[in-house]
Design brief:
Elements lengths: L7 H26 L10 H24 L3 H5 L9 E4 L2 E4 L1 H12 L8 E11 L4 E11 L7 E11 L2 E11 L27
Length: 199
């Protein structure tokens, strides 16, 4: 039937149905567009949790190895490669051997004790399936009573042998300056004036 022959009521109803359908479609599209884009897929979350668990174990194993004086086991957490990088105190050490020599010289030469190590404020941020960024704080308690501490940032990569540190940047907190001994206050004694010559 031609449109001009339709009653006004039918045309109004048809318009309402079309408008309602368009509004519903528009709201649906807007709602989908507003879904949080940064939410990782459900399948990615278990992988991130698995990486966090594995990296935490590496750090725990390093702490235990250090505290029993086993430097080689501690260094097992690093990538055994000429490409591993360790930076500290304004110096860069390229390669596993150079890093190991630095640790031995600093903590084992002349029968030195390695002290007690602890990590705190550790944050692990996965950067994908095979890499992660880690930051935290370390503290040492040495037999001589000193307490070196500072911050570290690490890059971990996953290899066939597990998660390994490929880059380590460690900074040591500056020791508080020693207070200079107090200078005792000595009150000044007025110098007596010489006698005035008779005039």
């Amino acid at each position: 039937m031609p449109t001009r022959d339709r009653p006004d009521g039918m045309r109004t109803t048809a318009r309402k149905i079309v408008l309602g359908t368009l509004v519903w479609l528009g709201l649906t599209i807007i709602g989908v567009g507003r879904l949080p884009a940064q939410t990782p897929p459900v399948a990615a979350r278990p992988a991130a949790d698995s990486a966090t668990t594995a990296i935490t174990k590496v750090l725990d194993d390093q702490t235990a190895a250090w505290n029993r004086g086993d430097l080689d086991a501690f260094l097992g957490g690093y990538w055994r490669s000429p490409q591993v990088v360790f930076q500290s105190g304004g110096t860069r050490y390229d390669g596993f051997d150079a890093m190991r020599d630095r640790y031995r010289k600093r903590y084992q030469n002349d029968g030195r004790a390695m002290g007690r190590l602890s990590f705190s404020a550790v944050e692990i941020e996965p950067l994908g399936a095979d890499a992660a960024f880690v930051r935290g704080r370390y503290a040492l308690v040495m037999p001589d009573g000193t307490h070196p501490s500072g911050l570290f940032t690490l890059i971990f990569r996953r290899f066939d042998q597990g998660w390994k540190i490929t880059h380590d940047h460690t900074s040591t907190a500056e020791a508080a300056p020693a207070l200079s001994p107090a200078i005792p206050f000595v009150p000044s004694v007025p110098t007596p004036m010489p006698p005035r010559p008779p005039g």
